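Thread: Newbie trying to understand structure tokens

Hi all, I'm a second-year student working on a class project, and my supervisor (Dr. K.) asked me to get a predicted structure for one chain before our next meeting. I've only ever worked with sequences, so writing a 3D structure as a token string is new to me. If someone could post the tokens and maybe explain what I'm looking at, I'd be very grateful. Here's the chain:
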Amino acid sequence: MKHRLRLLTVLAVLFPWYSPVQIATSATAESDTGESPNVLVILTDDQGWGDLSLHGNTAIKTPRIDSLAKDGISFDRFFVCPVCSPTRAEFLTGRYHPRSGVRGVTAGDERMNTDEVTIADRFRDAGYATAMFGKWHNGSQSRYHPLRRGFEQFYGFTSGHWGSYFDPMLDHDGSIVTGKGYLSDDLTGHAIEFIKSQTTEAVAGKAKPFFAYVAYNTPHSPMQVPDRWFDPVRERQLLRDNRGAGKEKIEHTRAALAMCENLDWNIGRLLDQLEASNVARDTIVVFFCDNGPNGHRFNGDMRGTKGSTDEGGVRSPMFIRWPAKIQPGAVVKDIAGAIDLLPTLTAMANVAPEPSSDSPDAGKKSKPIDGRNLQPLITPDPYLNNLWGARYLFSHWGGRVSVRSQDYRLDHKGKLYNMVDDPGQRIDVSAEQSDVAQRMVAARDKWIADMKIKSPDWKQDPRPYLIDANPSVATHLPARDAKATGSIKRSSIHANCSYFTEWTDTTDSIHWPVAIDRTGDYELELYYACDDSAVGSTYSVVVEYDDGRISESPVIEIKTANPAKDRGAEHDRFPRTESYVKTWKFAKGAARLDAGKGTMRIMAKESPGGGLIGFRLLLIRRTAL
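---
Reply by user tm_fold:
Sure, no problem. This is what the structure looks like when written as tokens:
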């Protein structure tokens, strides 16, 4: 058995491109003693490698996050994507983000194709209770919603960023609710209740392991944090050692550090709950970040910040703690990435690589993944380490592609850097190391061709928004994903969490390309703000089908004013460029929608008082199957 296990794991190391999860899981299935560890994955948003005291930043205190490295294993060279949604898709699928349809961060480009099988799908099918808390950012419509991607519970928001972190509008299992207090604290509270509920079930003899994904939204802007966390850093001496000399915005940095210290406190609350529930020993805890820092601040002298494909834009801390299996304090120097987490965690938990026959995803087959099972590095075997072999990791954003090997980085301009001798990327060695450069250029060109990122579809996303016939989760059509005609303006150049305003002409409209799943009756909720002049105004939802058909809903009348003012500035620690938010009301309507593809429009019909609404969201739910 021992030799068979070693042989199978050797195959996983040598041939990671050929069903690596299946090989790794087969090896685990032969040797596993039957444990099904709980899994807690923690992802933070815009927190850089340098935003931890563990990494030498004396201006910040993060003892609870640091403890994960001390009590577990840390990956010294772990790479994610330059921005948010691509990293999330790579973690969820084990595949490079272009393969899953994720092209950008807003206006629908963040959607992960519905035929992808996620890590949550796999854990749910293995009998785990699955839940997600926080920022989803891989699609808002019901087919893309976390509840349709393997998670049985969801509390958070599906957009790329949120406009207010205090008592915000949130999504709880498909219904719109109002959060309580500071968002990071609120998300943690819901995650703690989930852990409590699962461990209570276990005590009652209804044991079911859990897979929890807590995706915090900070320190992403807007830079909002309670006084409790901001006050201690107001006068703190900052570590001004960064590559953006002269570009650092001090108050932005202070807010980011305060938000990270709040994260540390909340992560400590999660770890304390694992202890209180007596499951810490048997729970795998993973911590990583989604991209480089959202500003010029201390980041270990690396070049690049969020949005960059250089080292500073894509290097993230990554810690795995599992007291029952992982020896504390080890540091892995081998390069690894977000694509590796799915094959690693499923193998560690002995989770099957394909959906079960009774799974909602039984018709789906897992696609070849790009990640490797990191177990040989986590539980070192000298024999296997020698066979781990070379690999390339690819980073892409905005048409720029860089390539990382164990020792070198080829940047998006074709310059080569020795990352061992020159981790700050200062000296181009492509001439001296021409063979290395040529191999990495060839690998980059092949990757670009494989990912099809230069195809017309990449720049012009052809996918419509899906109007789902399943009534369990409403379809969200937010202003973020819409386009508007005439005088209608967006509240910010950044579409996420934005709304439409200055609607003055009834000939103008707000519209989306849609695909309606099934003919049927649907409920509509139109989220709006307006003054008294728009009371009595009416609107209809019109679908112009590609085959020439047109359908129009009965009118939706605005019966009460909602003169909501922009809010959020009162909490900002640094000026924002994103949209502020309002407190929205909704007006109800109904429509008979036919199956098919076309353009869905919100049309203003008439306004006795002369005014029209500001628009935030159209919610659509089929009334029954």
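A couple of things are worth pointing out once you decode it. The first strand starts at residue 38 and ends at 45. The longest helix spans residues 250-276. Feel free to ask follow-ups in this thread.
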